[in-house]
Amino acid sequence: MERSENTTVRTGIRPPTNYSTGATAPTAALQEMTDSQSNARAQPTTMPPPQGVKRLAQGGQLPQPEPKLRKTLADRAGEYGPSNKSHLPSAMATPAPTRALYKNAQSLVATSLLLPPGTIASSRHTSNFSQAPRNAFATSIGPGSRPPVSSMNRPSSSIGFSQSTTTRPRGATRSRPPTITTDQGTNSEGGQGTQQPNGTKPSLALRTRKLRGTASMQSLSCQAKPQGKQEKSDILGLSKQLRDLSLRDEDIFGNPKGDQVIPKQDGQSLLPPPQLDAELDHVVQQKCQKEEASSTPFSSPGSSQSKPVPWPPKTPSRTRDPEAALQQLNTLEATVKDFLNTPVSPVKPSSPVKQSFLTKHTNLRNFTGWDVDERLQTLDSQFKAMKEVMDSSITDKKTLEDAVELAKTRVDDLERERLRLDEKNRILESDLKASQAQVTSLTVALETEKRAHKYAVEDTSRAHRLELDELRRELKDETDRLQRSHREALEALERHCRAELEDERSQKSKEIQEVRAKLGSEQQDMNLALLGKDREIQGIQSQLEAAKLNLDREHTIKGTLQQQIGEMSTTNLGLEDRMRALRAQIDFLESDSKQQSDSFEEMRSRLEEAQRSEEEARQKLIHEETERRLLFNKYQELKGNIRVMCRVRPVLDPSEGDEAKILFPDLKTSTQIDVTGPEEKSSLGNVNRKVVPFEFDRVFSPSIHNEEIFGEISQLVQSALDGYNVCIFCYGQTGSGKTYTMSSTDGMIPRATHMIYDSINKLKEKSWTYTMEGSFVEVYNEELNDLLTPAKDAEGKKKLEIRHDDTRKQTAVLNCKSVILDSANKVESMLQQAQNNRSVAATKANERSSRSHSVFILKLVGENAATSERCEGTLNLVDLAGSERLKHSGAEGDRMKETQSINKSLACLGDVIEALGRGSAHIPYRNSKLTHLLQYSLGGNSKTLMFVMVSPLEAHLKETLTSLRFATKVSWDYFTIQTRARRLMI
Ligand SMILES: Nc1ncnc2c1ncn2[C@@H]1O[C@H](COP(=O)(O)OP(=O)(O)OP(=O)(O)O)[C@@H](O)[C@H]1O
């Protein structure tokens, strides 16, 4: 394809295959051809528009191109297109010097055509003779002209021409080898026929024009060489003139280098390399030198292979103007005619030795004839073909013009689009600028707003700070004010309280003085009253004697009544027998007389009377029971609500040690005990042992058993059944027999419960029903423990709390287990359980030393259905802890703490009894748990019995004396109370 294009370009003339019969005569056609050669020489006409053209374009017919930077397609089309070429002035299209030179060239051609036919024939390429158009063309210009070798290889189809002129891609830039032949062929038509958008074509056309001029001159010089040196010099001069012509043409177009500077897109010019002309001159000179060296220049094999310098120039392809082409044809026809009229020079005979051939590559001999008619016919046919070509060229031209017009329209559209886009771009730029300005203004506004906001925040924070400081100051002031006011109020209140306290103190002192004075007078009155009370006591004692007599009488009456009841029961049985007998008798006498009915009525009345007597006797018995209770309580009170008894245990084993000297002087009353004290040295050195006598309500010797002892306390148990609170203590040192007396199997507790059961059963006859409920607690280290609950089960339980009912004079222990004692067996198991849980610790004094106070609480509640009476009494059986002194026991640590708490509770018990004896208004029950628990069983109408337990051993003598003295003190206090009570009774 490339090769085809190149060959087409080299030819520059349409192949005559499509040559049609032209309208122009052959002669005229030859003349036009000659002219076309001249036009072909006038390359500047196809050059890019010179300055004049540019000025014309600037005149308004064409859009003004941007110099070098932006050229529209229309601009480029105007510069290089054939339409612009038509605007060129004729003077510029064909400069005068060029025309003169071409005239010289035509004369030279004519001279060259006068060469001998053999010389011309030898220059033909007979091997390619089959290519008629080229061969015809070669013959059309005469044998003196050297046909272009390169054109012989070119396909002579019109397709190549079309490609070179119309169908070649506008943007395609084909590289061309920098050879003379290639450039020559390319430049022969490319500069005119093609319109390359990149502008390389005009540059190549200029270069082709130079080459053409130079090569033609070289060729001419070479061909003219055989004519002589003068001709050679003429040819060289003509070559120079052509070169100068090219230069001048270039000067005309304003380019000193001979090429128009076509700006590339990158701004670089596409100037041909400056050494190209020198190379072409060098090649032509070398070729001429070779031809000079050869003897037969036209038959030289290299001549046919030499550089294909086209001659004559391919004018038809270079000009697009058909009229000019026709003119060229006419010129060519005229030239042919001149040639035919010119006489032929004789042919130089060849050497007989050396045969000459057409070329060195063929064995054809030299031409021997010249058929002019045939040549003319050939020329005529070529002319016709050229005519057809020209017609087709005209058609192509019109098509191209249409295409150009279309391109212009497109260019205009594009230009309008560009303008629209430019306008849009300007609008967008203006918008952008406006947006930037807006952004700037917004940024400024934002900055301003930020600053304003910052200032506002700072102002606000400053205001808040100030406000906070102000609030703090106010708060501080308020706090100070409040503190001052509070301090002042406190001071005023303190002053007021002090004043009130002073007033109260003075008032109280006055009251104390008054009370003291009053007490003095009362004491006198009391002494007087005491005397009266003594008398009353004596009276009461007499009443008591009388009451005893009454009681005995009542007992007698009771026995009589019981006897009467028995008798009445017997009588009742007899009456019932009699009733049955009477009924039988009634049945017997029913039918009898009135006597029988009277007898029946009498019997019935007697029966009713007997029943009434029985009811009266029962009512009397109930009444006597109530009366008995009152008399029994009065009797107990007369015997003393508080009694102190002493019991001395026997020596269990002789190994226990010596027995102390304890005497019981009054065996009849059993109220005294004499204890021989320890040895004491007198001031004279005599050792004496004092006998210390003690007197109690009852003294039990070691031989007395529990049964007899219970006989003494059974009356108190009866009082508990009668609804009174009874408290029985066992006091004494460790090992003195307290537990034995109280809790042993035949101790007071079991006996008391058994007695209570018996009494309850008996009282049922008197319409009394009882409930008995027992509990067992322990006071250890001033704390209450439930002995009926094992220690492990007591953990986590609530502590025992003492609650007093002041109305009923009853005490209850909260959170303490109580057992309903509905049988005697339950009491024994309860005692056993309590004994196991009781805190027992070993001390030096006793291995089984009880270090706590145990309290057996038996609550008795009785109700009489006949009389609706109700009684509620409590029997407290207390086994006190050992009363030994600390020094003697040798207790340490926890034992010492136990002992201290034991001594404290015992001391508190003594204080309570002392207070009760003194008749003090305040009884210190709450000083210890024990007295607090037994509050309603100590004092008042309660019955209290204290057993002081005594060891018979000499070793325990001191403790024995201490215990006896404590009991005596209590006894005396009780005595005081009893005395007072007796006085009150009197
Ligand atoms: N009247 C008595 N007849 C026979 N044995 C007695 C008598 N009194 C006490 N005993 C015996 O003496 C010992 C000590 O008696 P008991 O344990 O009752 O003394 P205690 O005062 O209760 O001592 P603690 O204060 O340590 O409980 C016991 O073995 C007991 O059986």
Automatic annotation (TrEMBL):
One Gene Ontology cellular component annotation held by this UniProt entry: microtubule
Localization (cell): Cytoplasm, Cytoskeleton
Keyword Coiled coil: yes
Pfam families: Kinesin
Gene Ontology biological process terms, A to Z: microtubule-based movement; mitotic spindle assembly
Keywords: ATP-binding, Coiled coil, Cytoplasm, Cytoskeleton, Hydrolase, Microtubule, Motor protein, Nucleotide-binding
Domain Kinesin motor: 641-973
Biased composition (Low complexity): 294-308
Comp. bias intervals (Basic and acidic residues): 67-78
Binding site for ATP: 732-739
Biased composition (Polar residues): 1-10, 33-45, 120-133, 148-168, 176-187, 215-224
GO MF annotation list: ATP binding; hydrolase activity; microtubule binding; minus-end-directed microtubule motor activity
Region described as Disordered: spans on this chain: 1-97, 118-234, 250-275, 287-321, 593-612
Cited InterPro entries: Kinesin-like_fam, Kinesin_motor_CS, Kinesin_motor_dom, Kinesin_motor_dom_sf, P-loop_NTPase
Sections of the chain in a coiled coil: 397-431, 461-518
PANTHER family in UniProt: KINESIN-LIKE PROTEIN KLP-3, PROTEIN CLARET SEGREGATIONAL
Family recorded in the similarity comment: Belongs to the TRAFAC class myosin-kinesin ATPase superfamily. Kinesin family. KIN-14 subfamily.
Name recorded for this polypeptide: Kinesin-like protein
Organism the protein comes from: Bombardia bombarda
